[in-house]
Amino acid sequence: MHCLAATLAVISPSLSFSSLTPSMAAAFRWVLQLHRNVPKAARFYSEGLGFSVDVCTLRWAELQSGPLKLALMHSESNIAMQNGYSSMLSFTVTDIQSTVTKLVTLGAELDGPIKYEIHGKVAAMRCIDGHMLGLYEPA
Fold first, then answer.
1. What range does the domain containing 104 cover?
2. Tens digit of pLDDT for each residue in 17-52?
């Protein structure tokens, strides 16, 4: 923050960080994932993690979980996985074992075992089209 303020002072001495924040702050819109089968991916998040589906077509879907909006867009190529690019979404759940079981029935795979840490249980899952999910159940 100090570096930004110093840079602003050089660019325009009349501007300060606090004067820019309210009017120029970006509003988070959504996280986007590419999928070969958008309706199947929407079902995965809806049935597996309880997202509500706002819009779902063959090429585009918008899902909601609290303040988070997840957008799913159709892509024939597997470019995200070929280049090693993927989103990592992390979720707090009340029962990690039942969530893992539900997600596996919908096509996900555990990426290693469920780990039992002092702060709670954690698991990594690879969902359809290779996207990674983190699950956390607090102790």
1. 29-138
2. 454 455 557 667 788 888 999 999 999 999 999 999
What's at 27, amino acid-wise? A
CA–CA dist 97, 79 (Å, integer): 31
Instruction: Let me know the angle formed at the C-alpha of 123 by 36 and 128, rounded to the nearest 5 degrees.
Output: 10
3-state helix, strand, coil in the chain (%, to 5): 35, 35, 30
**Residue 64 included in any domain:** yes
- In angstroms, the CA 42 to CA 48 distance is 10
Residues 114 and 100 sit within 8 Å (Cβ to Cβ) = yes
CA gap 53, 71 in Å, rounded: 10
CATH code of residue 130: 3.10.180.10
What would the pLDDT profile of 68-79 be if each residue is shown by its tens digit? 899 999 988 765
